[in-house]
């Protein structure tokens, strides 16, 4: 495990700009957090005051950004080694480690307290636990300890729709757990596909990703297994109270395509993958992004149709 004090200072390439601090918050990850949280809030039963919706999403986004800043603070040593991450603000020297830590802690406190005041304390408690889970359980412990890091750690990315649901309802339900489970089961095949063509990065940084500890053949089998487990869960959600015909159609099409991609990956060997520069794996990884946005977008469409009395379920 890293020595956190080694990340408190670092080489400065110049005065940090606004964009450097935005990058600390992992804006691309925040996009997914905001979108799934918004869907969780909008598909929840009851009326939603626009100001409560706006404030809730704003503070959930800040909480997600706080997690990103804390992650970059702690992981600066391995980020500096990996090609995919060496340009991040802390390892590149644009932002000091102690600045990232201060920003992460400050945003954590602000986001949790303000969400509690704007919505309710159940949602705030879930947000606090999510930040803790990502920054401490995943980043500081699981990521460098076990090849199951992304499986268990994936829970952090799965909480936002539950937080959104709680912001609207003040509680947790089967429906919010289904949204959590959808993201939780999607995360391993999504990240393992990335790891297949980024193996050397994880090996060089000493991160025990499945590709490093068990090899690519085992990783390919795991992708297929998790995709096969994900499909019935994703399609079955259509028959819950948040599902509908639009979601069912999207889920069937996307999961058939996802299964075909996972099967194709499982049938490949390293020689074939290297010969075409991991084209199949990269295609699967890109499709996995569309997969999640399509499912949550369909949930929101069905919820909108139901609110206007056009639901068919």
UniProtKB/TrEMBL annotation:
It catalyses: heme b + (2E,6E)-farnesyl diphosphate + H2O = Fe(II)-heme o + diphosphate. Belongs to the UbiA prenyltransferase family. Protoheme IX farnesyltransferase subfamily. Pathway: Porphyrin-containing compound metabolism; heme O biosynthesis; heme O from protoheme: step 1/1. The gene is ctaB. This is Protoheme IX farnesyltransferase. It comes from Meridianimarinicoccus aquatilis. It comes from the Bacteria. Converts heme B (protoheme IX) to heme O by substitution of the vinyl group on carbon 2 of heme B porphyrin ring with a hydroxyethyl farnesyl side group. One of its GO terms (cellular component) is plasma membrane. NCBIfam families: cyoE_ctaB, PRK04375.1-2.
